[in-house]
Specification:
This protein is an alpha+beta fold. It has 3 helices and 4 strands.
Length: 125
């Protein structure tokens, strides 16, 4: 008779800190996406909400301005601007978020216990 038993103990990890960090990076990405859309559609920069989005994101976008030139198209009422710097910031922030969340994942191994029992039944006459 051979009996083999395997036990794995894994500990449930707390994802609260990962969720908080993920939400922070997601909010940054959404605000940058608003900037990209507003610039691309030629939103009125005198509007309070649009001005707020531009003001909040200018620091991040300003770091990468000048790498590529802006593309502009003038319409009848608005001027649409394509800012490659905003796209670059979005990619950089996404990579930073991925790296931070990857570093927050614990690299603990699982404990495995193996038990083997071998027994011989001897039948006597």
């Amino acid at each position: 008779m051979t009996q083999q038993m395997e036990t794995q103990d894994t500990k449930a990890e707390s994802n609260t800190s990962k969720r908080i960090v993920g939400v922070i990076f997601a909010v940054i990405e959404v605000v940058l996406a608003f900037r990209l859309i507003f610039k691309g559609l030629g939103a009125n920069p005198n509007n309070g909400f649009v001005r707020g989005i531009y003001g909040v994101t200018q620091f991040l976008v300003g770091i990468f301005e000048g790498i590529f030139s802006r593309g502009t198209t003038a319409g009848a009422e608005t001027t649409a601007i394509f800012e490659p710097a905003t796209l670059i910031v979005m990619v950089v922030i996404a990579l930073i978020a991925w790296a931070v969340l990857k570093l927050m994942t614990p690299h603990t191994g699982t404990r495995v216990e193996r038990t083997e029992t071998t027994g011989h039944d001897v039948q006597g006459k």
